[in-house]
Amino acid sequence: MAAEQERLKVSPGEMARVAAALYEPADLTRKTFANLRIQREALGRPWGEGDEIAQAAEKDLVPMIEMLDELGVTLVEAFTHTAENTIATAKSFHAAEEIAVENSNSLRSGFNGSDSGSGSGSSGRR
């Protein structure tokens, strides 16, 4: 019974459905970061130009904003790649399942005697 609990069970259809749902956070993240970028551009450089505060903001704040934009791109890529790879894995599991069913059916038909033309007719005992 313990071995039964340790088995991995995969439903390729359910796996593909859940994987497709991962495109939603990718789209949401893409839209959120695009909106953030548009709003930032509309503000311009609110810290001004030329003085010490403006120079500090350019030196420290601008690189952090650029890093935040890169993070947004990375998150979108991560969600998208995870969705794509999980869908590919689901397809692979589905194909393996079909092959296993075909092999099982082939073995079953051989045991049931539908493959009787290949033997010599003996029972195998001497």
Automatic annotation (TrEMBL):
Amino acid composition bias (Gly residues), ranges on this chain: 116-126
Domain of life: Bacteria
Residue span of region Disordered: 104-126
Protein name in UniProt: Uncharacterized protein
